[in-house]
Amino acid sequence: MTANTLAVDRVSKRYGDVVALDDLSFEVHPGEIFGFVGSNGAGKTTTMRIALGVLSADSGEVRLGDRPIDLDVRRTIGYMPEERGLYPKMKVGTQLSYLAELHGLSRTEARTAVEHWTERLGISERLGDTVDSLSLGNQQRVQLAAALVHDPAVLVLDEPFSGLDPVAVDVMSAVLIEKAATGVPVIFSSHQLDLVQRLCHRVGIIARGRMRAVGTVDELRGTGRQQLLVHAPGAPTGWADGLAGVRTLGHSDGRTRLELDAETDDQQVLAAALKTGPVHEFSLHRPSLTELFREVVAA
Predict the structure, then answer these.
(1) Which UniProt keywords apply (predicted)?
(2) Rounded to an integer, what distance in angstroms lies between the CA atom of residue 203 and that of residue 262?
(3) What is the pLDDT of residues 68-117, one digit of tens each?
(4) If you count Cβ atoms within 10 Å of the first and of the last residue's Cβ in the chain, which end, N or C, has fewer?
């Protein structure tokens, strides 16, 4: 295994009768942005806390390369929790320098790193302000700076985009892409699936503590049933109802959306559509990550 691959290996966790994680496994490779998505209570935060070493697993383990997550490994991880963990009455610059020194940087190294990341994240003018005086968006930028200031080998971010305005989302997205480009494995959870679809190399969908699907966005979007969009202006409602292995999902203004079984030949559908008159569009519809997520979670 590559030295900086983050591996979650058959991890289980229970709270009494509640199964939080059930034999969960996946990997995040160097240079990869991995989107970790699921409904509230699916197990995302529990997984991240176990990956960080804050919680212990009942069984299984998390490794960075071949090393289990111990104190030395934890020092190399940049973590951004969903519940922001900053000191509200402490000044931004002082706080970031303090956190950097806790991770082993010298005072000079910490000051240089703080200057770099606050400039990069657009908050350099707020170094002398206390955290509680900042907007939610700027507090999140400070929290991300805290995760980055010690030059981590891994980034683990829990809902980093929550509540951010579009400009802040763009800044944070660019930073994650830049860090991944240096070989850092990046994992983040988010309910903003359009953003996950745009940013991530691979995605894992968790439901009720189990990993239901893992793959690239294109791979995942190709696992659902094939859908066709047919625009045949002269076709009556129900024109495809008699075709074997075909279900009509919707029909409006001459446009029909169909779902096909895996073995169904789409050419028979085209032939049937042409019998109704001219066909202006006959195209494969690929489900979005949001549509796929709903299908996987409901299964």
Answers:
(1) ATP-binding, Nucleotide-binding, Transport
(2) 24
(3) 988 889 889 999 988 777 899 999 999 999 999 999 899 999 999 999 99
(4) C
